[in-house]
Amino acid sequence: MKINENIVLKEKNGIRYIQFKPLLDLNIKNAYTLKNDNLIFKKPGYGQKVNFDTYEKLCNVVEMNGKNVIIPQANHTNNVKNIDRKYTNEELEKIDGLITNKKDFVLATTNADCILYLLYDKEKKVIGNIHSGWKGSYKRIIENAIDEMQKNYDCNPENIIVCICPSIRKCCFEVDKDVRDMFYEKFLFIPNIDTYIEKNEEKNKFFIDTVGINNYLMEQKGIKKENIYDCDICSICNKEDIHSYRAEGKNFNLATAVISL
Fold first, then answer.
1. b/e code 83-114 from CB counts within 10 Å (16+ = b)
2. Gyration radius of the chain over CA positions
3. Same domain, residue pair 26 and 66
4. CA–CA separation, 222 vs 226, rounded Å?
5. What is the pLDDT of residues 121-135, one digit of tens each?
6. What pLDDT does 46 receive?
7. Which terminus of the chain, N or C, has fewer Cβ atoms within 10 Å?
8. How many whole angstroms separate alpha carbon 105 and alpha carbon 108?
9. How many folded domains does the chain comprise?
């Protein structure tokens, strides 16, 4: 797994994780977990309970408050919730994004190919954690997150830092014509859309750059290009270190991303 200039690789108490340097430089606690037998995360809902004990173990390592973990059920919506108190699992059932200006809350999301975004407004002291699978990207959840930060905290997009966690990338996000057509029709307004959605003639399949599409949407919302920090890690190309639903199959586990003021 290649580590670029935006992230650092760490290991403590047998737990391996990466952190985003631009957030650390601003004293914002953050982490994204790598494959590790000491940390097994399962998706909330579908008969699974949130494994808060595991989150507390991670939080102890990265110096966050493990008693105040907030995690949405992540059902591939474009709903973003402002967190001002503790919420029940049921209250977060149809939520895929979280924002807050409250100290000591730990905003958490999980993935196994989906994109996770960590956001921070350095002027208003507001953080966000957004789960954007291909359905959430299609529904443009990252735009909703920026809108909610503006609405709830008067954030200026020019002050928002965005960090992109490991996820499936264009090289491996292979889809059939039906999904290709959905994205092509939805995002036809993007200049050079054919560079984001390309056809593999040999396999009659299509490859979609959801990260690139979301980057374009964020910049149109006012996020500065230089404030977008990507780890550039594909979950499938790096399946030895990163959890991937497509690579692992039905017995897949999850990574988690956490951020806290």
1. beeeeeeeebeebbbbbbbbeebbbbbbbbbb
2. 17
3. yes
4. 11
5. 999 999 999 999 999
6. 45
7. N
8. 10
9. 2
Same domain, 197 and 230: no
39 with 68, same domain: the answer is yes
Express as a percent the part of the chain with pLDDT over 70: 97
pLDDT tier, 47 (very low <50, low <70, confident <90, very high otherwise) = very low
Q: Within this chain, do residues 23 and 81 fall inside the same structural domain, yes or no?
A: yes
* Measured distance CA(72)–CA(100) in Å, rounded: 14
pLDDT of residue 231: 98
Residues 85 and 133 in one domain: yes
Domain that holds residue 78: 7-169+211-260
Q: What is the mean pLDDT of residues 198-202?
A: 90
Whether residue 222 sits in one domain with residue 203: no
What local confidence, expressed as pLDDT, does residue 216 receive?
98
Q: With respect to residue 135, please indicate whether it lies within any of the assigned structural domains.
A: yes
pLDDT at 181 over 80: yes
Closest by Cα among 36, 7, 2 to 19: 7
* One-letter-per-residue 3-state SS of 6-58: CEEEEEECCEEEEEEHHHHCCCCEEEEECCCCCCCECCCECCECCCHHHHHHH
Inter-residue contact 126 to 149 (CB < 8 Å): yes
What is the domain-level CATH number for residue 249?
Answer: 3.60.140.10
How far is it, in rounded angstroms, from Cα 49 to Cα 27? 31
Same domain, 108 and 187: no
Asked, for residue 203, whether it belongs to a domain, the answer is yes
Task: Kindly list the strands in the beta sheet with 228-230, ordered across the sheet, starting from the edge strand earlier in the chain.
Answer: 80-82, 97-100, 126-132, 115-121, 160-164, 228-230
Closest CA relative to residue 111, chosen from 15, 249, 254:
254
